[in-house]
Amino acid sequence: MKIDIQSVSKRYGQLWALKDLTLQVEASRCLALIGPSGGGKSTTLRLLAGLEKPDEGSLSINGNRLPIEANPLREYRKTIGVVFQAYNLFPHLDAVSNITLPLEVVHGLSQTEAHERAYALLERFQLTEHGAKKPAELSGGQNQRVAIARALAPQPEFLLFDEPTSALDPEMTAEVLDVIESLIQEGKRIIIVTHQMGFAKRAAETIALIANGCVEELAGAEELFSNPRSEVTQRFLAKALNY
Ligand code: ADP
Ligand code: MG
Q: Which of 19, 110, 162, 181 could form a disulfide with 213 if both were Cys (CB 3.0 to 4.6 A apart)?
């Protein structure tokens, strides 16, 4: 996966969430975005997901520039999977329907095809017996695994995660991070915003530290943790690794 973000700025009212952010990464299986709260990680991810548009600058993935017009942008969004912190499942639908509905409505699969894919993913994530349950009847970890199954079901080119474990207790965090690591091991391309430094070090090849709306530091995972160059990174890691 080749990511090329060139001088991107994004403003909300008077506030610049991203200011002249540039990020070039080649062939990384897993890129982790870390950094202080409010630094611009989620905004970067939403831009990469095509959920928002930059005010300035451009984003390319694998050499293809992200479209700006509504129709191509909608097509682009079909090629990626996104998982958010708070799972964003439909509360009135059971686990199976949460997975099959987008497959049928957005991706045009038949009911049979959609159900086959959904059950295969539920089985893979040890959720088979929970298929008929609604989000309120499932644990946080189970819901997040349903959300990951839903994101994977259309067989996207890559997956974006925004703090997928921030709402979970330690046991469920481990359960969800294991699933994400297994995806990386099988070759899925992933960009993840995370506060789990152990996971970032273990699973990501490349880490970008985003603060104050730009990339403070970009380095290999080992390198960033053993030899952080920027002062902002050093301060962030000192805090993040100490709690
Ligand atoms: P992070 O994910 O690193 O915590 P964000 O990308 O969410 O940071 O936010 C960057 C900055 O942009 C913050 O100051 C945040 O308050 C602001 N921001 C993000 N989204 C919005 C929005 N939809 N409306 C207004 N301000 C926003
Ligand atoms: Mg965020």
A: 19
Q: Is the CB of 51 under 6 A from ligand 1?
A: no
- Per-residue pLDDT tens for 179-198? 999 999 999 999 999 999 99
For residue range 102-111, what is the model confidence (pLDDT) as tens digits?
999 999 999 9
CA 61, 63, 66, 67 dihedral sign is negative
Q: Which of 208, 1, 192, 5 is nearest to 84 (CA)?
A: 192
Q: Which of 156, 177, 208 is the last residue of a domain?
A: 156
Tally of domains within the chain: 2
Q: Say yes or no: 36 and 127 in one domain.
A: no
Query: Ligand 2 centre and the CA of 40: distance in Å?
Result: 7
Last residue of a domain, one of 140, 156, 172: 156
Q: Got the DSSP string for 196-226?
A: -HHHHHHH-SEEEEEETTEEEEEEEHHHHHH
Would you call 167 helix, strand, or coil by DSSP?
Answer: coil
Answer whether 198 contacts ligand 1 (Cβ < 6 A).
Answer: no
